[in-house]
Amino acid sequence: DANLILVLGDQLSPDLPSLCAGDPDRDTVLMAEVASEASYVPHHPKKIAFLFAAMRHFAKELRNEGWRVRYVDLEDTGNSQSLSGEVERALEDLPGRALLLTEPGEYRLKTELEEWAEREGTPMRMLEDSRFIASHAEFRDWADGRKQLRMEYFYREMRRKTGLLMHGDKPEGGRWNFDSENRKPARDDLFMPRPLEHRPDETTEAVLDLVERRFGDNFGRLKPFWFAVTRAQALDALDHFAEEALPCFGDYQDAMLEGERFLYHSVLALYINAGLLGPLEVCHRVERAYHEGNAPLNAVEGFIRQIIGWREFVRGIYWMQMPGYTEQNFFGAMRPLPDFYWSGETDMACMAAAIGQTRDEAYAHHIQRLMVTGNFAMLAGVDPHEVHEWYLAVYADAYEWVEAPNVIGMSQFADGGLLGSKPYAASGNYINKMSDHCAGCAYDVKKKTGDGACPFNPLYWDFLVRNRKKLGNNPRLVQVYRTWDQMESDRQSEYLDSARAILDRL
Ligand code: FAD
Ligand code: DLZ
Ligand code: SF4
C-alpha cells in the first residue's frame, strides 16, 4: 500500500531508511518548514537558513530521482506550522496512506508524532535510524550491567565493529588512544586553514530573504552565509578538511587563539547531523588520509574517536536517559543565564571571543563550548536548563540528542557524572595555558582575588566550596579540596568574597 514518507530537516540522506523502504512509483515524500520546529528555541538565523536551504535542495534532488515530493514552504498558505499538522493535511489530500518515517533524533518530536498517530488512528511505521553506527539495542546491551559508562570502552567496541584503524583485533599503532599527544597550545604564526566556503545560489538566497524577514531578530548574524547546503558541497568540505586541516587536528584540538575561529577543526558536525554526510564515510575519508601518509595517527585517531566514540556514546546516553534528562540539576543551580551570553558584551576576553564567534558563525569549537562558556556557567551556578536552551539555539549543529548530553552531562555535570568522572571546572590558568586570550583581557589571569582578578579564579573555588557536599567524596577531587583546606582562612575569605562580588554583578 502507498505511504506518505515524512522526511525531517535533519534527515537529508539518500540512504535514509524510510526512503530505502519506500517506492518512488507509489509513495509521496513530505517535507515541511514549520514554525513549531523553527521556534522551539530561538535558533540562530544561520542554523535555520542552513536547514531550510538544505531541505529545499534535497527536495529538488529527490524529485530529480523520480520521487513525488510535497514540499511545504514556511509561508505557504494553509501551512499548519507543525509537523503533525502537515502530516494531517497531506493525508487529507492523500487518504488511506500509512505514515512512514525514520525515527526523529529528538524525543520531543518522536513523542509528538507517536501521540498524534495514536490519537488519529493513523497507521505509522517508524524505522530505526541506521545512519548511526550503534543501534539502540547495541548500546543498551553494552551499557547493561555496567556500573560506570565510560566512552573509552564503548569506543573500542565501535573500532572493532567498524574496523576503522584496526589490524585484525589490534589497534593501529598499538594503542587505542593518542590523546596524550593532543593537548598542545597553538601558535599564531602557524599556517591556518579555513573551512571551505560556499556561495549561496538562487534557492539559498530566497531562504536567506525569508529568514532575514522572519527570524532576523534572533541572536546571531545571518550573513555572510557560507555553509554547504547540498551533499555534493558537503563532500567538498570534507575533502578540503582532510587535505588542509586534518594533519594538525590532533595537535591543536584543545587550543584557542584570538581571531582564529576554526583552527584545525572540521566544521562538519552540522553536515553530519543534518544527514548531508554519513559519519562512517567521513571516518573512511579521514582514515584514507592516514594510509596515504597525509595525516598522522594522533590526528586521525583523535578525529575518528570524536565521531564513532563520543558522537555515538552521547546519543546512547540521551535515549537511555530521556525523558527527564534535560531537567537534571545535580547542583541545584538556579541563576538565570547572564545577558551577555546573548550580547557578547563582557570584558572577559575569552568569553567575548567564544560568544562573538557564536553570534557570527553559529559555531564555536569544543574547548570553547566546554572550557569557556560551559565552564563559566557551571562555576557561576547557572540553571543548567537555561544553559541547555542556549546551546540548543545558538549552534548550527545543535539537536537535543547530541547537545543535551554534552551540555547537561559533560559540561554542566548536572546529571551527577554519567559522562565524566569529575566536573570540567577550571580556573583562568587552564584558559591561559590553552589560549592567547588572557594577554589582551581586561582581567589579570595571574591575579587570584580582588579587583581586576580573572573571574574564573575566585569562581572556581567558590564552586568547589559551594558544592562540597556533592563533590567532596569524589576521588579525583580529594587533592583539590586538600589544597583548599590548607589555605589560610583569610585567603579563603578573599576568594569567597571576590566570588560573591562577581556573582552579585552578573
Ligand atoms: P571537530 O572538532 O572537527 O570534531 C569532529 C567531529 O566529531 C564533529 O564534527 C562531531 O561530529 C564529532 N564530535 C566531536 N566531539 C563531539 C562530542 N562531544 N559529542 C558528539 N560529537 C562530537 N556537537 C554537536 O554536534 N551538536 C551540539 O549541539 C553540540 N553541543 C555541544 C555543547 C557543549 C557544551 C560541548 C562541550 C560540546 C558540544 N558538541 C556538540 C560537541 C562538539 O563540541 C561539536 O561536535 C564540535 O565542536 C563541532 O565542530 P566540528 O565539526 O568542527 O568538530
Ligand atoms: C531544527 C529544524 C528547524 C529549525 N526547522 C525544521 C523544519 O521546519 N522542518 C523540519 O522538518 N525540521 C526542522 N528542523 C529539524 C527538526 O527540529 C529535527 O528533525 C528534530 O528536532 C529531530 O531531530
Ligand atoms: Fe578569560 Fe580570565 Fe584569561 Fe580574561 S584573564 S581571558 S577572563 S581566563
Distance between the termini: 60 Å
Shape assignment: globular
Structural class: mainly alpha
Q: If you compute it from the alpha carbons, what radius of gyration comes out, rounded to the nearest whole angstrom?
A: 23 Å
Going by CATH, the architecture of the largest domain would be: Orthogonal Bundle
CATH fold title of the largest domain:
DNA Cyclobutane Dipyrimidine Photolyase, subunit A, domain 3
Quaternary:
single chain
Number of domains: 3
| CATH C-level name of the largest domain | Mainly Alpha
Mean pLDDT, rounded to whole units? 97
Main β-sheet description: 5 strands, parallel
Unreliable parts: none
Q: What's the CATH H-level superfamily name of the largest domain?
A: DNA Cyclobutane Dipyrimidine Photolyase, subunit A, domain 3
Number of strands: 7
Give the strand order, joined by hyphens, for the main sheet: 3-2-1-4-5
Instruction: Please give the share of residues in helix.
Output: 40-55%
In percent, how much strand structure appears in the residues?
Answer: 5-15%
Write the element-wise H/E pattern from the N-terminal end onward. Answer: EHEHHEHEHEHHEEHHHHHHHHHHHHHHHH
Bound molecules: flavin-adenine dinucleotide, ligand DLZ, iron/sulfur cluster
Describe this structure in words.
The protein folds into three domains: 3-127, HUPs (Rossmann fold); 136-195 and 245-321, Alpha Horseshoe (Serine Threonine Protein Phosphatase 5, Tetratricopeptide repeat), CATH 1.25.40.80; 340-505, DNA Cyclobutane Dipyrimidine Photolyase, subunit A, domain 3 (Orthogonal Bundle). It has 23 helices and seven strands. It has helices at 17-20, 35-38, 45-64, 83-93, 107-120, 136-143, 151-162, 202-215, 231-244, 246-249, 269-274, 279-291, 297-321, 340-343, 349-361, 366-380, 384-394, 400-411, 428-434, 456-466, 468-471, 478-485, 489-505, and strands spanning 3-6, 28-32, 68-72, 98-102, 124-127, 166-167, 170-171. The chain has a five-stranded parallel β-sheet, sandwiched between helices. The protein has a two-stranded antiparallel sheet with strand order 6-7. The radius of gyration is 23 Å and the shape is globular. The protein starts with a strand and ends with a helix. The mean pLDDT is 97. The structure holds flavin-adenine dinucleotide (FAD), ligand DLZ and iron/sulfur cluster. Iron/sulfur cluster binds next to helix 15 and helix 19. Ligand DLZ binds next to helix 2 and helix 3.
